[in-house]
Amino acid sequence: MALNYQVMSDLNYLTYPHYHSRVIAVASGKGGVGKTNLAVNLGLALARRRLRVALLDADLGTANADIVLGLHPRYHLHHLVTGQKQLSEIIVEAPFGLKVIPGASGLPELADLPERQREQLLHSLQMLDGLVDLLLIDTGAGVDRKVIQFIQAAGEVLIVTTPEPTAITDAYAMIKILNSYHVPVDIRVVVNNARHREEGEITGRKLTTVAHQFLGRQIDVLGVVPYDDMVPRAVRAQSPLLQSYPRSPAAQAITRLSEQLWTGQLPAAPQAELGGVAGFLKRILSFKSEPAE
Ligand SMILES: Nc1ncnc2c1ncn2[C@@H]1O[C@H](COP(=O)(O)OP(=O)(O)O)[C@@H](O)[C@H]1O
Ligand SMILES: [Mg+2]
């Protein structure tokens, strides 16, 4: 399949004059399951195919996508929010042209920002709609209200789990919570750290089966990423897996996953209706007055 994303994104502009970026949150119930590694390398895999991708590091507690990428950003989201810097000044270029918006550990949660800073953030970040085809968001772990709101605002989420029973239970808890609100979210599961394909498939099937049986909800498994020693090795070297070990099993699995995620088709109508980055931001900021609980 020839994936000429540049042509596709130009076509998108023609088809949708007000073309909006697709916004996808990467989340997990349990921490340490591989969200950041998936978000970073998925972003790189898509950027390598000429898709214009930005990665927002929104794990506000422990922002670390920049570390995995070996970047040393001088500025981050905090400087944008306070109006000290423009979006173009905080964005850092990663390999393959991936754009990284560094998070700020300890940044007050976006929805709780004072009015003026919220406006500032909205104004600066919505420019991304013209700049990127996809905004990937690395969120914090857990079913914290803020994380759930991020996911609801994005409209699309990849829930990362491992085959460990605790991770599966927490992933299911997250799916259940997302399903309990009347906010439509497109949920897909990624199984990481599988020791072999079968283990990954069984894990995915467990989740899809319980979701179907107890929630009456159809959930897709986007793919399985194997446990691979090259992942921690790349992290230690602060050189992203897709760049340093592109032929490693995990890198190849993530590349396949990226093709599943973005088949080169035009965005489906519901995605266009979500209103891109601008729509995402408006929803996030509106949650202040409308708590999700
Ligand atoms: N597929 C994998 N194979 C081996 N180790 C992995 C894999 N995915 C992640 N890891 C390791 O697991 C740890 C947690 O990964 P990370 O992406 O930071 O998780 P999270 O963002 O969910 O907290 C890291 O040390 C990373 O190297
Ligand atoms: Mg992380």
Highlighted features:
293 residues; Rossmann fold; 8 strands; binds adenosine-5'-diphosphate; alpha/beta
Structural summary, described in words:
- This protein has 293 residues and is an alpha/beta fold.
- It has a single domain (21-286), classed as 3-Layer(aba) Sandwich (Rossmann fold), CATH 3.40.50.300.
- The protein contains 15 helices and eight strands.
- An eight-stranded mixed sheet has the order 3-4-2-5-1-6-7-8, sandwiched between helices.
- It starts with a helix and ends in a 7-residue tail after the last helix.
- The structure holds adenosine-5'-diphosphate and magnesium ion.
- Magnesium ion binds next to helix 2.
Name given to the CATH architecture: 3-Layer(aba) Sandwich
Task: Sketch the major β-sheet.
Answer: 8 strands, mixed
Number of separate domains = 1
Low-confidence residue ranges: none
The amount of beta strand, in percent, is 5-15%
Q: What do the pLDDT scores average to?
A: 86
User: Which superfamily, in CATH terms, is the homologous superfamily?
Assistant: P-loop containing nucleotide triphosphate hydrolases
Helix count, per DSSP? 15
Compose a concise summary of this entry.
The chain is of the alpha/beta class. It has helices spanning 5-15, 35-48, 65-68, 77-81, 87-90, 115-125, 128-131, 145-154, 165-180, 197-215, 230-237, 241-244, 249-261, 269-273, 276-286; strands at 22-27, 53-57, 92-93, 99-101, 134-138, 156-161, 186-194, 220-226.
Could you outline the blueprint of secondary structure elements for this entry?
Blueprint: H1 5-15, E1 22-27, H2 35-48, E2 53-57, H3 65-68, H4 77-81, H5 87-90, E3 92-93, E4 99-101, H6 115-125, H7 128-131, E5 134-138, H8 145-154, E6 156-161, H9 165-180, E7 186-194, H10 197-215, E8 220-226, H11 230-237, H12 241-244, H13 249-261, H14 269-273, H15 276-286
Parallel strand pairs: 1-5, 1-6, 2-4, 2-5, 6-7, 7-8
Antiparallel strand pairs: 3-4
Magnesium ion binds at residues 35-36, 59, 64, 138.
